[in-house]
Amino acid sequence: MEREQDILTSSPLERYKRVLKRSPQVFQEIPDKYIASYLRMTPETLSRIKKS
């Protein structure tokens, strides 16, 4: 329930930062396409966010 509310009210950048803060190791263990899907964004958007 909390995740759904977060997805509806937060920007992709905010969602990325929250996951990065909570679980930084996830980005080393799980492929970006699955992380992007979990955050409800395209892999391309996740890639752009990570570069900035």
Write the layout of secondary structure elements.
Elements: H1 2-9, H2 12-22, H3 26-29, H4 32-38, H5 43-51
Helix pairs in contact: 4-5
Describe this structure in words.
Helices cover 75% and strands 0% of the residues. The N and C termini lie far apart (29 Å). It is built from 5 helices and no strands. Helix 4 packs across helix 5 (43-51). It is globular and about 25 Å long. The longest helix is centred in the N-terminal third of the chain and has 11 residues, at 12-22.
Give the terminus-to-terminus CA distance: 29 Å
Largest sheet: none
Q: Which oligomeric form is depicted?
A: single chain
Count of strand segments: 0
What's the helical proportion of residues? over 70%
The average pLDDT value, as a whole number, equals 90
The value of Rg in angstroms is: 10 Å
State the low-pLDDT regions, or none.
none
Number of helices: 5
What is the H-and-E element order? HHHHH
Which descriptor suits the 3D outline? globular
Helices and strands: which structural class?
mainly alpha
Strand residues, percent? under 5%
Short overview:
The chain is an all-alpha fold and 52 residues long.
Please describe the structure with a list of short key phrases separated by commas or semicolons.
single chain, globular
